[in-house]
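Key idea: predict the complex, not the pieces.
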Amino acid sequence: MTTSVKPKFAMYWAASCGGCEIAVLNIHEKILDVDANFEVVFWPVAMDAKYKDVEAMEDGSILLTLFNGGIRNDENEHIAKLLRQKSKILVAFGSCACEGCIPGLANFSSRQEIFDTYYETISTDNPEHLRPQSHYKMPEGEVNIPEFYPVLKTLDQVVDVDYYMPGCPPESHQIAAVIDLVIQVLQGKAELPPKGAVIGVGNSTVCDECTRKRNVRSITAFRRIQDLAPVDPEICLLEQGIPCNGSATRSGCNARCPSAGAQCIGCYGPAEGVLDYGARLISAFASVIDAKEPEEIERILDGIPDPAGQFYRFSLAGSLLKAGVPAWKKNGQAKHAAERQRGQGK
Amino acid sequence: MTDQFEPTVIGFTCNWCSYRAADTAGTARMKYAPNIRLIRLMCSGRLDPTFVFKAFADGADGVLISGCHPGDCHYVEQNFKALRRFILMKRVLVQMGVEPGRLKLLWASAAEGAMFAAEINKFVEEIRKLGPLNWGKDEGGRMKDEISSFITHPSSFGEEVPA
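Result:
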């Protein structure tokens, strides 16, 4: 078999950390199956390739593209559109591409706030207060760097997506299973799932995979896990007052964090049928609080100092509201800062 | 009159008390602001916070949650669930930069038609003062506008480096 007849594979990182690439390599010897069955044509983290090489490819000539990372700037968007055009199957790979993930948390802040933090805080040595400009004219001509968007978008807010594979990063055994499936499809032994499906996941919640014992949940105080000693190794973490996100989070990870004694933080995103992950968690957490008086409820909720961060850690950009006011409304900044301070002062 | 901002307010009412309060107001021909669109749920405890976020995301300027008075819930204590969700939702919305006054909780019994009508009027006026929220009414367009204005005027934030 010559390389030219092997189907083509691409992987790209937009606004992401690189953990998804590590997770792919973490499938160990299975990576050889990828090499045996695919010709890797574009994978910036693993091999040298130029955007113009991709641009020169025929439309639809890449069989499978795993796209990780959110859309933070116009370079990300350009490559997303380019890879959409060139790929038969485009997978939103990892939490960033699916729902924004950690980079999406920047959607709470305006660009001004983001750049102020990045370029002007105490850990930054920037005596001339330089800020990179997207377009800069020099005697030799204009130089450009990618345009930083007001909000981070998920991949499907920019292009049509065929499949979603959540996780921060997706678990390696799930990646291996998906690769196996695609290879079987290539050999005519299996069929692809319907378009728009979430792949490499379970169909329930993390709670369902978790082996901890659940009794009646009735919470009188939320605590950080490090403030609670000892943590009961057998009983549901939420029941012990640790804000565990398992009840709204899609299964697929074998409840890895709760089994190891840490709360679920929700990296596998919303469970099947959940429209807004944070809203579902607000619902769940509010249901188990054992209090009827507003003052008492407020006191218990003070145990979750950053509720928006708790509930939208991985899913802000993909949520119904997508971003906080400052990110999408210029005049929202001043008001926002004041409100936020008031919120914290409680 | 024509220049006045007319807010869109979504009201979630429970079947047993607050929707009946609206009925009482209606049968007694009491007038209240037409800005509110009431949606009947079986119980305020049925209110999924998703409804509230979807209302704001789709253009509501304010959301009212209304249920039976504490102790009067048809389903014993589900209105306390609504209360807890309300408080938690409000905290999240404030972090999102939304004014806390845009979300209101109101207990109303079936007999309190007059109070219900008066409270709706009050709430609509409060929202009118806050102005339009305009959340994602045309989110794509808005974002695009923001981007293009930014591209045309790169100096719109930060300092431009002298050439």
